[in-house]
Amino acid sequence: MGRSILVTAAFCCLLYAAAAQPAAAQAPADDTWHVTIAPYMMGAAMKGTAAVAGKETTLDMSASDIFNNLQFGAMGLVVARKGNWGVGGDAIWMALGANGTSPGPAAAITGSVDMNQGAFAFYGLRRLSPAADVFFGGRVNTL
Q1: How confident is the prediction for the chain on average, in pLDDT?
Q2: What is the spatial distance between Cα 78 and Cα 88, in angstroms, rounded to a whole number?
Q3: Mean pLDDT of 2-11
Q4: I need a labelling partner for 89 at 20 to 30 A (CA). Which of 8, 37, 78, 81 fits?
Q5: Is the pLDDT of residue 1 over 50?
Q6: Number of other residues whose CB lies within 10 A of the CB of residue 132
Q7: Which of 46, 45, 43, 44 minimizes the C-alpha distance to 59?
Q8: Range scoring the smallest mean pLDDT among 4-13, 74-83, 96-105, 129-138
Q9: Do the beta carbons of residue 79 and residue 49 sit within 8 Å?
Q10: Radius of gyration of the chain (CA)
């Protein structure tokens, strides 16, 4: 579990470093639109308990377990700037699916589960200095 998280974190850092521009280059003096598109990825793990209809079960899934059940996933960021103002959006979508047998001493139930999760953010930006922005907006989450 620890190794896959380290590999994912290292990949994300390299991706960010490759896409990052110096602060001076991000402060255009002209009045044209500058658009940044940045896909990204993350690794997640789950450990704890969950309950549905009063039936509680223990969860322990590593990042590799989750990737094995990933049917589709996409994450990305788009920012458009003109002068000191800008607009942006961030989207996360994943579809997970698994087959299995219910836990517990009662008669086992075999079946499959499919679930989707998404998060969508839309915001405006105002440059305060070459190294600082303030932003405002909203986020919608769906499960």
Answers
A1: 79
A2: 5
A3: 50
A4: 8
A5: no
A6: 9
A7: 46
A8: 4-13
A9: no
A10: 20
The 10 Å CB-count burial string (b at 16+, else e) for 27-58 is eeeeeeebeeeeeeeebebeeeeeeeeeeeee
Reading the block at residue 95, the tokens are: 């579809």
| 3 state SS of 62 | coil
Nearest to 44 by CA among 70, 77, 19, 71: 70
Torsion of CA 64, 65, 68, 74, to 10 degrees: -70
Report the range of poorest mean pLDDT among 56-65, 75-84, 107-116.
Answer: 107-116
Distance CA 30, CA 14 (A): 30
Which amino acid is present at 97? G
